[in-house]
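Run log, item B.
One chain of 129 residues. Sequence copied directly from the ordering sheet:
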Amino acid sequence: MSFVDKMFGRGFYVAEQALNTRMAKQGLIQSNIANLETPGYNRQDFPFARAMEAALDQRGQLARTNKAHIALDPLDISQDITLSNDQRPVDLDEEMLDLSQNRLMYRVTTKILSKKFENLKYAIDEGGK
């Protein structure tokens, strides 16, 4: 358990993984929109819930046998995270809705993190009085 986990609980790690996963989903949605008129391109979906589950379970995370080894993000290396291919063309309205929802959830997560930091700052400031 890291120092941050001991001090703040698992909330920061969960929020970090949620933000990383939302960013990855944003990129995929943008790719779908960019390929809207590409012949033969089929819509791809990013399984957010499955990606979060894998990241939180740390499936796919490599063992660090030496402190000098660089830790890899489980989201990047997990074999469980695969893009689903619906075998249907991109619907611009559906992609724009997904984009809006994803953006909203990203903002909610950043707001939650911001409040956690505000509470921490308050505790530090009040503790010094």
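Observations after the first pass:
- Residues 23 and 39 are 26 Å apart (CA to CA).
- The chain has one domain: 3-127.
Flagged for discussion on Thursday.
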